[in-house]
C-alpha cells in the first residue's frame, strides 16, 4: 500500500511517502524551491518523492492532506456571525476550500498526469489531528498523553488527548482567536522581528534578560480551568481585522497581529534595525516565562487527566526547546517525544500516519529516531559539483576523512560537512551541517557575522556523542533532534564556551553511532584529538533553506568564509 501525505497551502509545505508499509522519504518543499518556509502546494517534493521510490502517482492508494476546512465548521460560522461579515476572511476561507477540493488535480498536474489517472482515495485530516498523529505514531510509546500547540490550524490553536495503540482520542481544544503561538508571534513582531518563523530568535534572546515584565504580560492571557486559556483580545487585532497571511506560493508572510494597546502597555515597538537592549531582553524573558507558565500548567492538567507519564508533542510551539527542557522536571511526565518536524512541515507525515493507523487500522511500525529522510546524491554527483568549480580535492575513506576533518576543526577551521540524505525538519543534524571547534569562544561571533550573516545574540548548539552526553550536559534521555535545552555541566562550561549560552544552557543533539555512523565518527575523532566529545553544529546555509544538492553546498562553501568542505568522501580546503 502506498500513501502520500501532503502539507499544502500552509507554511512549510511538505510531503511524506509511505511505500509498502515503510516511510520512504519525508521532505519539505523549501529545499527544492530555495525559499524559506515555502508555502503553496509541495509540487517538487511530491515529484521527487515518487521518483525516489520508483512510483507513479497513479500507484498511490491514499493521499492525505493535513487540512480540513469543514472541521469545527459550526464554531467558525458562530464566530463569523458574532463578528459581523468580514469579507476578506470569508473569501480566504472559500479560496482554501476550493484549493483543497481540487487537490487531486493539482497533484496530478505536479507529476505530469491527468486527475483521472489517479486512483487514490483522498482524505482531509484536521490540522491538529495531523500534528498529534505526527508525534504519537512516530514515537516509541504504545500509550501517551498528546499535545498539539501552535498559532492556528483549522480554527484551533491547541488540542490535547491520549494515544492508545493505533488510535487517537481527543480530550479538549482551544479555538480561534485564543492562541499561545499567536501571542508569541505578537511579541516577536513587537520586538522588531517581523518574518514568518522569527519566534525562535526571541527564544534565543530570552536568556539575556530577566522576566521583569512578567506581571504586566500576564494581563495578555487568562488561564482557565482544565488546561484552557483565553487571550485578552484588546491587545490583538487578528480576531477583528483577520490574520493577514499569504500562503499561496513563495515564502509565507504575516502582518502585525498586535493592537495599539500593546504599545501603550510596553512603549513603542522596536523599529527594525534599532539595537536590541535591556528592555527587549527583559520582554523576551517575560514572554518565555509566561509561555512556560501556561503550557506547563496545561501539561500538569493533561498528566492528571490521562494518567500517563509519557508525552508526545507537536505544533510550532513544541519547537520551543527552553520550555521543552523543563517538562520532565516540572510536570509528572517522565519521557517526552517530539517529532523532529514538530511545526506545520511535519503535518504531511502526520496526515499519512493518521490515515494509516487511525483510519485504516494498520498496525504501527515506525519509530522515528533519526531525521535522514531526504534525498542523497552519488559520489559522481559530488565530484561533478567540485569539478565544475575547478576545485582540487582528496578522496578519503571514512576513517581518514573523519580524522583529517577533526584535525582541521581542532585547528580552528570551519568545516562544511555534507553526507547522505538531507534532514527532515528545521535542524541540520550532521548531514548538512557547518561544524567547528566548541572550545573557541570567538567561533560564535565569527559564525554569526561572517558565515551566517545574522544577529550577534543568536546561540549555537552542540552535537555530542550519545554515550558521553551525561558527562557534559545535565540531561536524561538522548536528545537526537536538538529540541530540548539543558544545562551544560558547571565544570564543563568553560571548556565549550562557543556552545554554552549566556545562562549556561545548550540545545544539544546527541549523536548515536547506529543512526549516523559518519557524523559519530567525526565527533569521535575530534574527541580522540582533544578530549572533548562535542562539536559546534549549525545548519549548512546562509540565510536560505539548508543546502540540498552538492552544487548548493559547493556554492555556499565558496561564497562565504568556510575553510574546509567535506562533500561525501571528498575533502577540499581553501588553503590547498
Ligand atoms: Fe500547525
How would you portray this structure in words?
With 576 residues, the chain is of the alpha+beta class. It is 35% helix and 20% strand. The protein contains 21 helices and 25 strands. It has an 8-stranded mixed β-sheet with strand order 15-25-24-16-17-23-18-22, with helices on both faces. Strands 3-2-1-4-5 form a 5-stranded mixed β-sheet, sandwiched between helices. Strands 8-7-6-13-14 form a 5-stranded mixed β-sheet, with helices on both faces. Strand 1 and strand 2 form a beta hairpin. It is globular. 54% of the residues are buried. The mean pLDDT is 93. The structure holds fe (ii) ion.
Which descriptors would you attach to this protein?
576 residues; 20% strand; globular; 35% helix; alpha+beta; 8-stranded mixed sheet; binds fe (ii) ion; 5-stranded mixed sheet
Count all strands and give the number. Answer: 25
- Whole-number average pLDDT? 93
Widest sheet, order of strands = 15-25-24-16-17-23-18-22
For the biggest sheet, the summary is:
8 strands, mixed
SS-derived structural category: alpha+beta
Map the helices and strands.
Blueprint: E1 2-7, E2 14-19, E3 22-28, H1 30-33, H2 43-53, E4 62-65, H3 73-83, H4 87-101, H5 103-110, E5 121-124, H6 127-136, E6 143-153, E7 156-164, E8 167-175, H7 180-190, H8 199-205, H9 214-217, E9 221-223, E10 229-231, H10 238-241, E11 245-246, E12 253-254, H11 260-266, H12 278-306, E13 310-314, H13 321-324, H14 327-330, E14 335-338, H15 347-359, H16 379-388, E15 394-395, H17 398-410, E16 415-418, E17 432-436, H18 442-451, E18 461-465, H19 469-472, E19 473-474, E20 486-488, E21 505-506, E22 509-511, H20 517-530, E23 534-539, H21 550-559, E24 564-567, E25 570-573
Parallel strand pairs: 1-4, 4-5, 6-13, 13-14, 16-24, 18-22
Antiparallel strand pairs: 1-2, 2-3, 6-7, 7-8, 9-10, 11-12, 15-25, 16-17, 17-23, 18-23, 19-20, 20-21, 24-25
Helix pairs in contact: 6-15, 7-12, 17-20
Fe (ii) ion binds at residues 127, 131, 150, 153, 315-316, 344.
